[in-house]
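Below is how a single chain appears once it has passed through the pipeline. First comes the sequence as given, then the structure the pipeline wrote out for it. We keep one example in the README because the format questions we get most often are answered faster by looking than by reading.
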Amino acid sequence: MSDPISKDWNYHPDLPLADGSIFKWPPKPGFLARWFARNWLSLSERVIMVLLAVAIWLWIYPDFTATKTFQAGWIFQVWLANFALVALCAGTLHWYFFMRKGQGSELKFDKRDMARGNKLWKFSNQVHDNMFWSLTSGVGVLTAFTVFTMWLMANGFTPVIKPLSNPIWFALSLVLLPIWSAFHFYWVHRLLHVPFLYTHVHSLHHRNVNVGPWSGLSMHPVEHLLYISSLCIHWIIPSDPILVIFHVIYLGPGAAMSHTGYEDLLIKDKRRLALGTFYHQLHHRYYECNYGNQEMPWDRWFGTFHNGTPEDTVETRARKKRMYS
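Resulting structure:
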């Protein structure tokens, strides 16, 4: 018997989706050890982000002492660095997957290509529309939060650590920041799906039913403010500029990686880098489900999990109808 779900997708992982949360109870040490090794003991996307954050802090971002006062020079330097980060990451991924067709349709969730000739999008082009929102409002808001955070840290208004003096807290912070971001994202995302906010704000992002790398940061300015407010955690906890830049990369270029529309990057037919997830792809297709990500248990706890089966699609559509009735 054919799989009815496969008719709707070019590719999907085994269904129903397994529970990928690291907060399973009772805890499973083996599962946690594999999760940690996959994310932090291999050349994963998170390790690449850390290495990039260190390089940017040492050679690209302004000297820390210069950020004590708001001046156009160093603010522009931060904006330019953030612009380049988003443009190079999203642009390279788009070029490889959608222009060069470097992986063809292997591990691509949606059967369709990016939309063209549709007035739903600015410039009647999905990619150009996504680029506009990502590189204007997206980079602008990301830079505003970065600049203000660096100013707070430089003036001693928020606790600052040094990695070499506080190696344990620094390393722990690297592991915890993506978990914090996932927690923050879930609740902000639920808020954005309140019908009024969805209609006037979040629907701009959700036009991307079929996503590509430029879709990740393509949002309404209000959504950018809410999404990037995750950086406010550095105003409270002891932090370091490298941690801030890592967080910036996770929120900016990281969104491009998670919205490629492909599950993994293949090199010589082997999965080398995790990218998008079917978990979030289901959210873009069916809207009122999977508000968080696989590492957090909130969707399962609060009854908004879609496991990829036709039965869950029916339930999700009924939930959406109730919300908008």
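The chain has a mean pLDDT of 95.

See the next section for the split statistics.
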